[in-house]
């Protein structure tokens, strides 16, 4: 098929009278236009500018003024496309000259992306059939874009809230799922008000000129029956009615501290708070709780705190007498039998004279005892002339101080252990010469070094009692003469004298080897 330029050349040669451009374009028109453009078909210039294709879009917009307005305002489908494609060409999508019944819109409903318009389909709108919003026989652009345009008959407010449904509703939620920023009004919703349904305050769809005071809605909830006035917010908040918050100190001059901060208002404001000014002194409210029966005066706060009745009195700072050990947990009346101002003794015997098992013989109680317990004796015997070591360290005080007298106690071993003296006094009273406090059986005595009579031969294995038989009260002194111990063994009957060592040795009496010397 010959090109359009070639066809024009032939026509210009064959029919010179048709040489003007308009006539030539009509002659080569590719086919009829659609029915809607039929009245424009007689003049190509209605839609075309001869040999200037770029002007065609402007001519389209001259006729389609609603589309032109969308393009200018960047609204609708065409306005959105104009932003994405600045060089918008109408014929790129809408091709003409395909006959009177041709569909030059070319809309594929199944593939059309509604997000390319200025009305994206969100939430419940997504997936809906086109006919649900676009009325058959009307241009798609004429579909309403406001909520009331489609849902006017469904809204229950009867137009009392205007047409901006989006202030409360959203296409992503169901109609009953209301979201409204009440903070944009003169009454922001806080606390429990946030979860209240709209109809609980806006009865019968009344939205304007509603009262904003607490009692206007909650007069039936006022347990004070109006005795505290209408400013509920002075004590209560919108979170909950219970747990009222009231600056008691600022309003009344009486700070609620400690336990006072936890009690209910009616605990002090009796008769449903009809009493506006209860007493501010401790005894004014707590006289029935005074265990001292008034003996300690009316200044309860001097000893007690508002957190608890338990005493918080600094006894050391106030009296110079620290309460330590078992004293710390005593009740005040254990010592203070009379008035608080009565003078009390500060010495141990001043209070515990009847408890003294020493009957006054030892007055410095704290030398041995502590305030932790009478039976918890703490005395450092190391500071005396008789430090306690070995078995003495674990002995009870009464083991040596049987009559609970501590001065002038004997330090001689025999005075305590005489009845258990295995030697019957034959080794004298100085037990420590052989024994030590770690145990009687742990004795040590070196006869060769500690005396001038070394034990040799048969003497070495003898028991002490073999020689030391007679009780002694002073030094241990025995005769060194053999005959003093062996007189009964002398077969010579004394004829050879008393110096047995001239013939015999300590090894054996029968060994007379020394005679040959």
Structure, explained:
- This protein has 517 residues and is mainly alpha-helical.
- Helix content is 19%, strand content 0%.
- Helix 4 crosses helix 5.
- The chain is elongated, with a radius of gyration of 62 Å.
Give the N-to-C terminal Cα separation. Answer: 172 Å
The overall strand count is: 0
Helicity range = 10-25%
Tally of individual helices: 16
Tell me the strand percentage band: under 5%
- Order of SSEs: HHHHHHHHHHHHHHHH
How does the helix and strand content classify structurally? mainly alpha
Rounded to the nearest angstrom, the radius of gyration is 62 Å
Largest sheet: none
Quaternary structure: single chain
Q: Which spans of ≥5 residues are poorly predicted at pLDDT below 50? A: 13-19
Overall body shape: elongated
| Mean pLDDT score | 82
Summarize this structure as a short list of keywords or feature phrases:
mainly alpha; 517 residues; 0% strand; elongated; 16 helices
Write the layout of secondary structure elements.
Blueprint: H1 4-14, H2 21-27, H3 56-63, H4 65-73, H5 76-84, H6 147-151, H7 214-218, H8 248-252, H9 270-273, H10 282-286, H11 315-319, H12 348-352, H13 397-400, H14 413-417, H15 447-450, H16 482-486
Concise synopsis of the structure shown:
With about 525 residues, the protein is an all-alpha fold. The protein contains 16 helices and no strands.
